[in-house]
Amino acid sequence: MLLRGAAMAFVLTTTLVACGGGGGGYAPSGGGGTPCPSGFTGTEPNCTPVSTSSANVSLGTTAVNTQMPPAGGYSGTLNFPAASGTGMLAVTTSTTVPAGIVAPSTAIRRPQSANTPLLYFTMTPAFVGSLNGYFGLVVTLPSGVSTAQNFYIAEWNGVWYTVAGPGSVSGNTVTIAGPPGTIPLNANQPLYFVFYAGSFITPPPSPTPTPSSSPTPSPTPTPSPTPTPTPCAQGSFELTACSLDFGGTGSANAIPFTISETGYSGNFTANLNNCTSILAVSPASGTSFTITPNSPGTCTLEFTDADNNTASIPTTVTSTIVGGQ
Q1: Distance of alpha carbon 73 from its chain centroid, rounded?
Q2: What are the residues whose beta carbons fall under 8 Å from the beta carbon of 230, sequence distance 6 or more?
Q3: CA 292: distance to chain centroid?
Q4: Between these two residues, 261 and 46, which has the higher pLDDT value?
Q5: In this prediction, what percent of the chain has a pLDDT beyond 70?
Q6: Closest by CA position to 118, among listed 101, 91, 142
Q7: pLDDT at res. 301
Q8: Cα–Cα distance between 247 and 249 in angstroms, integer?
Q9: Residues 208-220, buried b or exposed e (16+ Cβ, 10 A)?
């Protein structure tokens, strides 16, 4: 009996050791290893990046920094500015282009290799309001993505155009600050953004329609050129115009703009404010500038002297409509 009891105790002890693995740790069923980190599936070392991830962000009257839903091996934080209105924002990250839009490399007239989309963001608000600027991004790149390139954020509005960047790179982490502006939020209407590597994207000019090959073709209407601005004075400032109204987008509609100030001989700095996605101003500082309309919208362009005296120029950009279509 003693021998039989000892044998049973040995079998029980052996079973407990086998279950415990000798180290007291938890092993997943099936003998797998450690579960992969957030943003991956499987068990180490066989980790596969998930392609899509979602999270809800609560927006309000103060800025919000939150973890980015990880996807494709990318992880990091999203930095949202304060909002007018309070509610939830559904954020989905994906390594594949969302349905209904196209990739940046196919949205502009450039070679396919010019811009490489890395991570798409679909942001759908559950309330009506606005963001007081674009979101910022701090993202850790997965292995295999070269840091020897420029990184940007672009927004989809029928075409892609860059709204932020280039980012700063430290190790394998890219930081892109969110520029100022006003971003409308409409309930259940998604906004699309992409984190990409490449170069700055400006919307292409509207193409001229090809005339039909009818026996007696009617002449193709010519788009109305942007009117020549009327010079004006604004306080102590002398401006090319006190307001701007562009009848189309692209370099063909760009205008020269000059500014001077009584008793001041220095340079002026162009402040885009909420014009970031609507206008481009070159150079950033000086007395003579070129203003190019990039996309339809309304905003206020400002020029500031070294003493922070500011001239404000209300600006409107409309799309050129050819032939009443």
Answers
A1: 19
A2: 241
A3: 20
A4: 261
A5: 75
A6: 142
A7: 92
A8: 7
A9: eeeeeeeeeeeee
CA distance 290 to 282: 5
**What tokens were used for 6?**
């000892």
Total-model pTM = 0.51
Sign of CA dihedral 191, 197, 198, 200: positive
Q: What is the pLDDT of residues 104-127, one digit of tens each?
A: 875 544 444 478 999 999 999 999
Mean per-residue pLDDT for 43-58? 82
Question: Checking DSSP bridges between strand 183-185 and strand 129-131, what pairing results, if any?
Answer: antiparallel
CA 285 remoteness from chain centre: 25
Band (pLDDT 50/70/90 cuts) for residue 34 is: confident
- Greatest Cα pair distance, the chain, in angstroms, is 114
Which has the higher per-residue pLDDT, 232 or 25?
232
Sheet containing strand 297-304, strands side by side: 244-246, 310-317, 297-304, 268-271, 285-286
Do the beta carbons of residue 146 and residue 88 sit within 8 Å? no
Question: Two tokens at 35?
Answer: 């579960």
Contacts for 212 with CB less than 8 Å, ≥ 6 apart: none
With CA atoms as reference, report the closest residue to 110 among 5, 19, 201, 197.
201
The answer to whether the bond into 209 is cis (omega within 30° of 0) is no
